[in-house]
C-alpha cells in the first residue's frame, strides 16, 4: 500500500496503517500497513542549545540578546548589531563571508570528500551495500544502472577500510566486488575495465591450493567467514554486492578569500540539573 495523504483519502483505507517516509516520493509521508517490515528512525531529546555570538577585533564576546533587548545601545554597540543583524529594513543578515571565485580542487586544498545520498564515505571512495542478492553479472548491471560500478579495490589501504567497515558496522553477508577470472590470459581482472589486478586480496592459501582451471567462471567476493577477506565463487551464485563511486572533493578556500570571522555559532551542552 502506498497512499499519499490527502483529505479525500482519510477514512476506512487507513485502518491499521502507519506513517512511513517514502523514498520513491522524495521522502514524503505515505501510509503503509503496520505489519510491513521496514527500516525505521529513532529519536532522542537533544541536550544542547545554540548560542549566536558576535566577536569584535579584540575578541570580546558580544551576545545577540543585547541587540534585541530593547535597551539603549552605545554607538559602538549599534555598529556591532548592524553588522550582525543587517541594516534596518533588510531582513537578511549582513554578508560575513566573501564569496570566492570557483577554483578546481587540488590535493593540497581538499578539505573533505562528499558522497551521493545513501552511500558511505570511506576515504575518497563512496560505497553502497545492496540488500538484495544477484549473480555477478546482474550485480554489475545493477550498479551501472545506479551510475556506479561494482567495487574496485586498488590497494591494501582501500581493502582494509572496506573490511573494517564490513566487520563492524554492517550485516555480515558475502558480497560481490568487481573482479573476475579471465581464463584466456590466466589472470584476475576488473570486469569494468578489463585491467589486471594490481592488488590481489585473495589469501595465498586459496591461490596455492586451487589449480588455475578451477577458477574458470569465478568471480571475487568478500567473505564474512574469513573476516571479509577476498574469496572466489561461481559467477552464477547469488550474493549481495558492493557498488562504488569516487567521492567528490570539497576544497578549502585559498588565503585571502575569507574575511576575519565577525560571528560564530557555538553549540553548548545544557546543564542537567
Short description:
With about 270 residues, this protein is α+β, with helices and mostly antiparallel strands.
Kindly describe this structure:
The protein has 5 helices and 16 strands. The chain has 273 residues and is an alpha+beta fold. The chain has 3 domains: 3-33, no CATH class; 48-99 and 258-269, no CATH class; 112-248, Mannose-Binding Protein A, Chain A (Roll), CATH 3.10.100.10. The strands form 4 sheets. Strands 7, 8, 9, 10, 11, 12, 13 and 14 form an 8-stranded mixed beta sheet that branches. A 3-stranded antiparallel beta sheet has the order 1-3-2, with no helix packed on it. A 3-stranded antiparallel beta sheet has the order 5-4-16. A hairpin with a 4-residue loop joins strand 10 and strand 11. The chain is extended and about 90 Å long. The protein starts with a strand and ends with a strand. The model is unreliable at 47-56, 88-103 and 254-265 (pLDDT under 50). This is C-type lectin domain-containing protein. It comes from Acanthoscelides obtectus (Bean weevil).
Summarize the main sheet.
8 strands, mixed
Radius of gyration: 27 Å
Helix content: 10-25%
Order of helices and strands: EEEEEHHEEEHEHEEHEEEEE
**Mean pLDDT across all amino acids:** 76
What is the annotated CATH architecture of the largest domain? Roll
Amino acid at each position: 500500500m502506498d497512499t499519499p495523504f490527502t483529505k479525500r483519502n482519510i477514512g476506512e483505507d487507513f485502518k491499521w496503517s502507519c506513517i512511513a517516509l517514502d523514498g520513491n516520493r522524495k521522502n514524503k509521508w505515505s501510509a503503509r500497513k503496520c505489519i510491513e517490515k521496514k527500516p525505521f528512525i529513532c529519536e532522542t531529546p537533544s541536550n544542547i542549545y545554540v548560542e549566536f555570538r558576535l566577536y569584535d577585533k579584540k575578541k570580546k564576546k558580544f551576545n545577540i540578546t543585547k541587540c534585541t533587548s530593547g535597551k539603549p545601545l552605545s554607538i559602538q554597540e549599534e555598529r556591532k548589531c548592524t553588522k550582525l543583524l543587517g541594516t534596518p529594513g533588510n531582513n537578511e543578515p549582513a554578508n560575513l563571508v566573501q564569496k570566492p571565485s570557483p577554483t578546481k580542487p587540488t590535493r593540497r586544498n581538499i578539505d573533505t570528500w562528499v558522497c551521493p545520498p545513501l552511500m558511505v564515505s570511506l576515504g575518497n571512495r563512496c560505497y553502497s551495500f545492496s540488500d538484495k542478492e544477484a549473480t555477478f553479472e546482474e550485480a554489475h548491471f545493477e550498479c551501472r544502472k545506479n551510475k556506479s560500478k561494482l567495487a574496485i579495490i586498488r590497494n591494501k589501504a582501500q581493502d582494509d577500510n572496506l573490511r573494517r567497515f564490513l566487520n563492524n558496522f554492517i550485516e555480515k553477508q558475502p558480497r560481490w566486488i568487481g573482479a573476475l577470472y579471465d581464463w584466456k590470459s590466466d589472470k584476475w581482472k576488473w570486469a569494468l575495465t578489463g585491467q589486471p589486478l594490481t592488488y590481489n586480496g585473495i589469501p595465498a592459501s586459496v591461490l596455492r591450493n586451487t589449480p588455475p582451471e578451477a577458477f574458470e567462471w569465478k568471480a571475487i567476493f568478500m567473505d564474512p567467514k574469513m573476516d571479509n577477506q577476498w574469496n572466489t565463487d561461481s559467477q552464477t551464485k547469488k550474493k549481495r554486492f558492493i557498488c562504488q563511486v569516487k567521492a567528490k572533493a570539497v576544497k578549502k578556500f585559498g588565503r585571502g578569500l575569507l574575511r576575519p570571522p565577525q560571528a560564530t555559532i557555538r553549540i553548548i551542552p545544557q546543564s542537567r540539573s
